[in-house]
Amino acid sequence: MTDYTAPLRDMRFILHDVFQGPALWARLPALAERVDGETADAILEEAAKVTANLIAPLSRNGDEQGVHFDAGHVTTPDGFREAWRTYREGGWVGLGGNPEYGGMGMPKMLGVLFEEMLYAADCSFSLYSALSAGSCLAIDAHASEALKATYLPALYEGRWAGTMCLTEPHAGTDLGLIRTRAEPQADGSFHISGSKIFITGGEQDLTENIVHLVLAKLPDAPAGAKGISLFLVPKFRVAADGSLGPRNAAHCGSIEHKMGIKASATCVMNFDGATGYLVGDANKGLAAMFTMMNYERLSIGIQGIGCAEASYQSAARYANERLQSRAAMGPQAQEKAADPIIHHGDVRRMLLTMRTLTEGGRAFAAYVGQQLDLARYAEDAGERQHAQRLVALLTPVAKAFFTDNGLESCVLGQQVFGGHGYIREWGQEQRVRDVRIAQIYEGTNGIQALDLLGRKVLADGGQALAGFAAEVRAFCVSTPLHRDALQASLVRLVACSEWLSARAREDANLVSSVAVEYLHLFGLTAYAYMWARMAAVALARHDEDPAFYGAKLATAEFYFQRVLPRSLALDASIRAGSASLYRMTPEQF
After folding, report:
1. Distance CA 467, CA 463 (A)
2. Is the pLDDT of residue 364 over 90?
């Protein structure tokens, strides 16, 4: 089943009531001239139609057909090309793009909600668009004016698509080991030679051209990560007037056969002296690529939220329809042979866990989007710098916590269906398979945890964390609702961080041994902040819409009573240290 309805009521609640997006945009001149609340609502309304009516119906057939590879050419499943044409004609690829080159320039707060709809409708289709949007960010931030003028308009329009070519068979996380080479040419271009793996959309039949962003090393490059440069390598070379020229020496050697996202082409790309163009400064390619990577990490985090929302919708419908046994409190559907399983406590536990994690994630994604908007558009330098620090701190949390929770929620949704959850026709098993990759690509969640604890918390002496904690404490002063639980969770996080800072100097294995638990401790506290903010608004406005706001208050209560206590166990696990992980020798494993 592919039924999906965008949760527009909750999205508007987040955008307008909790974070007051339109008021923020009004004080940021670059955004004030592009978007207001009415415009944002119109975009969300249209996005809901596109994702529900155009993209979601492709999901099951796309999974069953997958992509087809033949002699270097990739064919996407039935309906994908027609849907992409309609999708790009709507301007959706360039939603957040630079207006100077044809993008719509919409705020990231709005963009994260649209991305959630995309991933909820179908992960595979969404990835073609997500990689293009990320490519555009890197090109816009680092490429020459000539490259931007040549490539960005067609990418924003969706006539061309972008990719990110980092990984090689022997080099994943440690990109300093890459072997792809770039040879300078007399005309200022470069010949790129090497192979890249796991390239999303490396070859497809949706667009006229594909623009690869490729990490490679110049002949005189320093060793390691400091010697990496970034190059733009088009599938078809582009003439001065923007028309397509001859085929470049960039070819798909094969595609991967995967557990999920089967309609997304995951390619091995071979560059055999392909013509490329330097993006940014020589030997500074990793920093340029991370402009794209950080975008993709938030986007892939949102994949977890989207899949979880789709799973929740299906599970909640099923729980209200499926009859099984009588409720513990006595018959609830007297006219029927049994009660709907929504009346059973364990089913409610699963659904409410899914709901708290998904709605908490949606709010946190919008919060990170808000910081991205401030980091880019705020006129005050101090406000921009504060937002930049928060974005750096929170991006690994968003990527890893969203996707860990996404898998948990999809498995819970499958469990609500019982045996039917294991059957293809109900759609839940596909969501489990599709969401699973999100914990792996764009930097595994273990790597995100190491980044958070090692680089974003300990390396700066906890300054970024202190800024976030100060904001939470300031909020606690303004509201009594769930204040004690939120404050206790924040105290636990800060104290644990200080304990780790002191102990990490004595134990070289400590950070890598507890980083994942620490990220989850951080995530639970961040979600507590989101839920306290949502609950405060819901309480103040309850009488305007008792059904919606009452449900929000009840869900918040479940989070604080039944989900947030996980942080107690995480704190204890972290403080146990690394010793038990290293009792055994490698040979004993």
Report:
1. 6
2. yes
